[in-house]
Specification:
mainly alpha, elongated, transmembrane helix, Peptidase_A24A_bac, Prepilin_peptidase/N-MTase, membrane, Prepilin_IV_endopep_pep
Length: about 170
């Protein structure tokens, strides 16, 4: 996302400031949720649910970001949130012990951020989360600090995957 900021500054300063505000909230939310999830294996609603409202200005920034009204970009942001929420919801339904509903709710928020950039960013952010989580689980098994059945907090890996994808060029 950082690569889009200079072009937003040039083309649509209002959109630039919307994105900066959303990114500042994202940084705060990510730090809080990562610490809480590592400590307690919970992603509290009091942080996750307001994050939807804090990320919604990204839809407006996307619609106004090119200098002209782009409704398709706004729908991509909203669609990214809906698609990622649905993917995680299906994973939760298929194997409830493998994923908490807090992860499902967080996925919708992260989908809004990733959808702001592109569908490929949504894919790579999700893939990075599962890759990082899998590598961590594998490291636990190899070092004998856990087993294949060990519960790991997945929220930090979801957040890290999103950050990595946000840093990718368009």
């Amino acid at each position: 996302m950082t690569h889009r900021l200079p072009e937003l500054w040039q083309d649509a300063p209002f959109s630039f400031w919307l994105v900066v505000a959303c990114l500042a909230y994202f940084a705060w939310m990510s730090a809080r949720l990562a610490v809480i999830d590592i400590r307690s294996h919970l992603l509290p609603n009091r942080i996750v649910l307001p994050s939807y409202w804090a990320a919604l200005p990204l839809a407006g920034a996307a619609a106004l970001g090119g200098g002209a009204l782009d409704v398709g970009a706004a729908f991509r942001v909203l669609g990214g949130g809906a698609v990622l929420w649905l993917v995680y919801f299906v994973l939760r339904v298929v194997y409830p012990a493998g994923m908490g509903f807090g992860d499902v709710k967080l996925a919708g928020v992260l989908g809004l951020y990733l959808g702001f950039l592109s569908w490929s960013h949504l894919f790579w952010g999700t893939a990075a989360a599962f890759l990082l989580g899998g590598l961590f689980g594998l490291a636990l098994i190899v070092t004998r600090r856990g087993t294949a059945k060990s519960a790991i907090p997945f929220g930090p890996f979801m957040l890290a995957g999103t950050v990595l994808a946000l840093l990718l060029p368009a």
